[in-house]
Design brief:
Elements lengths: L22 H28 L19 H18 L2 H7 L4 H16 L4 H4 L9 H11 L2 H12 L13
Helix pairs in contact: 2-3, 2-4, 4-6
């Protein structure tokens, strides 16, 4: 254990011989000494108490942003994909981005269609938030994936270039 700070009997701020010239400065020198003593005691207690224990602070509260369109889905998918490739675990990647697995599974067809076959997007049509929900648009994207596109997607999933996540939709 480290030795504590040295204590000097006289206050170096006082006059010659450690005495103050007027009562006001004497009072201030005593209060200064007591503040220094209590601060050093607090410091010592802090050091003593922190040995061997880890302190965890409150988690930083970051607000989640709701994804509102196909571009947002693609952006979130790519972020999670990058994290998945680093961490080698889908559950950790979802945890890292604070997204539920089912949420990503429901919107995966949109991202995969945009990545693998962007030309099929014309077949599906634009997403209009005033007319339909993102989930319904995702269903339309899923139905637009033909056998050839699905084979491409499966190959990319095996090579870890896409998230190996199963769809929540049935044909």
């Amino acid at each position: 254990m480290k030795p504590g700070p040295r204590r000097v009997d006289g206050d170096s701020r006082a006059g010659v011989g450690g005495e103050a010239s007027d009562p006001e400065s004497a009072a201030s020198s005593f209060s200064g000494a007591s503040e220094e003593g209590s601060a050093s005691e607090r410091k010592r207690q802090k050091q003593k108490g922190s040995t061997g224990r880890r302190r965890f602070g409150k988690p930083k509260a970051r607000e989640r942003q709701r994804v509102k369109d196909a571009d947002g889905v693609l952006c979130r998918y790519k972020k999670i994909l990058g994290t998945f490739q680093k961490l080698k675990s889908m559950s950790r990647a979802f945890e890292h981005h604070r997204v539920d697995r089912n949420t990503v599974a429901l919107t995966t067809p949109i991202a995969e269609l945009l990545i693998v076959a962007p030309e099929k997007l014309a077949e599906v049509g634009e997403f209009d938030p005033s007319k339909e929900r993102l989930l319904e648009y995702s269903r339309r994207c899923f139905l637009a994936l033909d056998d050839e596109t699905l084979k491409k997607v499966q190959a990319l999933k095996k090579s870890k270039l896409l998230l190996p996540i199963t769809y929540r939709f049935k044909r």
